[in-house]
Amino acid sequence: MRRYGTAVLLLLTGGAVLRITLFSELYLRYVQAGLRPYLIVSGAALVLLGLATAVLRSRTPDDHVALACEDQHGHDEQEAPHSHHRTPRTAWLLTLPAVALLLFPPPALGSYSAAREAAQRAAQGVGTFPALPAGNPVELTVAEFSSRAIYDSRRSLKGRTVRLTGFVTHGDDGTWYVTRLTVSCCAADATTSKAEVRGADALPADTWVTVTGTWHPKGALGSDEAWPPVLDVTTVTQVKQPADPYEKP
């Protein structure tokens, strides 16, 4: 089995990548949708390389290796085949992440990641935003709502009913938020947007919800006091986590 260690590692890694990209949408927990073709090609290449490595190892004669080992280490010819193509024991530890991704894909980033990140706000500063579509409620991302609430000099959210979808996070003082992570490329560059929810009881952390309500102004535009924006909610509905849990910038 040791002689096939490299092949096994390549097959496990390639199979794990194909499992989350070609046969499911789990890859959306980690990267943008546009990277899917590249991941599929990479996974297929790893699988093919693993198969090719296994075939080459199976065709390598043991006696040639035995002679080489005898010259180098002074062992007899009967002991050498046992050391043929041995994979270092520590290298087998590399199979653990591949097996974990294949069998137990990690969940999307959630409340823990959001809580550890300092408040990050849009960099555009106070200004004007495009007009909101007519009708209520207006469907907005959490990032859009946050930016308009903090920076829109026209106060376009005033008097409008909005609908946001995100997961629940908790504050230290009993407040709770509807939160969403924004990803530019992959989960490693995720940033946090959130809105404080008032008028409804808190749900457990990481529960996905759709909330409907109106903006509750606070603080001066662009100030620290305006962060995070507040939403006076009228309805809170539990929903399933979207296939793509991240918002786009």
UniProtKB/TrEMBL annotation:
<dbReference type="Pfam" id="PF21537">
    <property type="entry name" value="DUF1980_C"/>
</dbReference>
<keyword id="KW-0472">Membrane</keyword>
<feature type="transmembrane region" description="Helical">
    <location>
        <begin position="35"/>
        <end position="56"/>
    </location>
</feature>
<keyword id="KW-0812">Transmembrane</keyword>
<protein>
    <submittedName>
        <fullName>TIGR03943 family protein</fullName>
    </submittedName>
</protein>
<dbReference type="InterPro" id="IPR052955">
    <property type="entry name" value="UPF0703_membrane_permease"/>
</dbReference>
<keyword id="KW-1133">Transmembrane helix</keyword>
<dbReference type="InterPro" id="IPR015402">
    <property type="entry name" value="DUF1980"/>
</dbReference>
<dbReference type="InterPro" id="IPR048447">
    <property type="entry name" value="DUF1980_C"/>
</dbReference>
<feature type="domain" description="DUF1980">
    <location>
        <begin position="149"/>
        <end position="246"/>
    </location>
</feature>
